[in-house]
Amino acid sequence: MMKRVIAIVFLISVFNASCNSGSGNRNAVKTVSEETALAGFLIITKVVDGDTFWAVDGTSKSIKVRLIGIDAPESRNVFKKKQGYYGKEAKEYLTTLLKGKYVKLEYDVDRTDQYGRTLAYVYLEDGTFVNAELLKNGYAMVMTIPPNVKFADVFVKHQQEARENKRGLWKE
Question: Taking the CB of the first residue and of the last residue of the chain, which one, N or C, has fewer CB atoms within 10 A?
C-alpha cells in the first residue's frame, strides 16, 4: 500500500510540474489526485482507435485498454488490417468522449486478451457506459467473445436501435 501511495504522489507531482511549466495555466492539464487514483479511476492519455485507448492508473505505468463486447472499424491501415468504413469517425468520437477524462473499469471473466491488453467495460465519472455509447451512436458493432458476455443482450439492443435509426455505421 505504501508503494502505491508513493507512486501516486510521484504521479501527482509529475502532472503538477507539467501544469506549472509553460503558459502557467494550471488548468491546461488535468491532474490525477490521490483521492481519484485510490478510488480506481484512470485518466486517458491516448486513444488508439474506436475501441482501444491508453490510460494511467495512479502508478508510473500506462495500461492499454480494449473495450469488451464491441468492435469499431479500423481507423488506419495497420499490418494486414485495412482502414474500415467509419473508422476515423469512431476514433474521433471516442477521443471526444474520453479526452482528458477519468474513467473506471469493470472487468468480466477474462481481464486480458491474447495481446496483453486489459479488457474492460468503461464508465465515465458521470456514469456514462462508454461501450454502450459507441453502439448506441453507431460507432461500433457488437462483438462478444465468450466468456466475456455480461452485457451481450444489452449491446445487441443498442446496435439494433442504432441500425433502425440509421446512426453512424448504419447511415445509408
Answer: C
Cβ 162 vs Cβ 168: under 8 Å: yes
CA distance 59 to 12: 10
Q: Which sequence positions are flagged as catalytic?
A: 66, 74, 117
Collapsing DSSP to helix, strand or coil, 158 comes out as: helix
Is 75 in contact with 50 (CB distance < 8 Å)? yes
In Å, what is the CA distance from 44 to each residue of 133, 144, 155?
A: 17, 24, 23
Grid coordinates representing 41 are 479511476
Whether pTM exceeds 0.85:
no
pLDDT in tens, 99-133: 889 999 999 999 999 999 999 999 999 999 999 99
Query: Cα separation of 48 and 54, whole Å?
Result: 7
